[in-house]
Amino acid sequence: MKNLKKLFSLILVVLLSLTTFVGCQNNEKAPEEKPAEETPAAQEPTEGATKGKITVAASPTPHAEILAQVTDVLAEQGYELVIEEFTDYVQPNLVVDAGDIDANFFQHKPYLDDFNKEKGTKLVSVASIHYEPLAIYAGKSSDLASIPDGASIAVPNDTTNEARALLLLETNGLIKIREGAGLAATKNDIAENPHNIEIVELEAAQVSRVISEVDFAVLNGNYALAAGLNIGDAVAKEEQESEAAQTYANILVVKEGNEGREDIQALVEALKSDKVKQYINETYKGAVVAID
Question: Which residue spans within the chain are E strands per DSSP?
Fold first, then answer.
């Protein structure tokens, strides 16, 4: 009997010990979970970071030369200016209208308007940068006042520049244009031609190449510069105050809808800067005139 009581007592002690052990285990704290590591915040672009390219189609002289003056200024703002040179007056508009190039710089507004009408393009001017006085240069003859009968004068053959050339000849008393012909005038609109002058119509880029073969040539400023001609040597030119000089300001052109783009506005601001105006006036000495 005593042995039985001792056995019960031993079992009771063991059971109490197990209960205490389990209770201690349950009271232990679970290991704390570590907070998830925070994801680093995205870094803000550093100052001067590249924003992209601005591509511009331009005539080599003076347009590409003027654009080259703003390359560093735009680079400081994060833009890479890429200048694509063209020697004609057609492709620069076609590539901008197609969206292959952002802008072009080579033409005046009347030419642009005429081009849009004829080609169905949707191009717009965003800024007037400068104008280039159209001028008459001597070829085989040198004096307009004593121009020989039957003299030949080469003019650009695109609609607006031919009209401009003919109006300059009219201003200098050589011919009379039919009233109302205006900016659409061609040699067929010559109403009076007392010296029986032969008007030789050529693509604008070709006019300077035949100057030694004609009595006089009427040249756009960029092609005169490219041919090494000095406007101071011209026998006549459009004056700065003339309506023509203002009408034919050279413009920066983009595809319709892109006028407000940040990169285009940055380009406009750079081209209208005092730095560019000073460069134009000091470099071209009247052959190119900056517009305020």
Answer: 52-58, 79-85, 103-108, 123-131, 135-138, 152-156, 176-177, 190-192, 198-202, 216-219, 236-237, 249-255, 289-290
Which residues lie closer than 8 Å to 281 by C-beta, 6 or more apart? 289, 290
**136-194 pLDDT, tens digit each:** 999 999 999 999 999 999 999 988 889 999 999 999 999 999 999 987 899 999 999 99
Q: Is the pLDDT of residue 75 over 50?
A: yes
Give the predicted TM-score (pTM) of the model: 0.70
Q: Closest Cα to residue 148, out of 174, 166, 167, 169?
A: 174
In 10 A of CB 143, how many CB atoms?
10
pLDDT at residue 24 is higher than 70: no
Are 102 and 96 contacting, i.e. CB atoms less than 8 angstroms apart?
Answer: yes
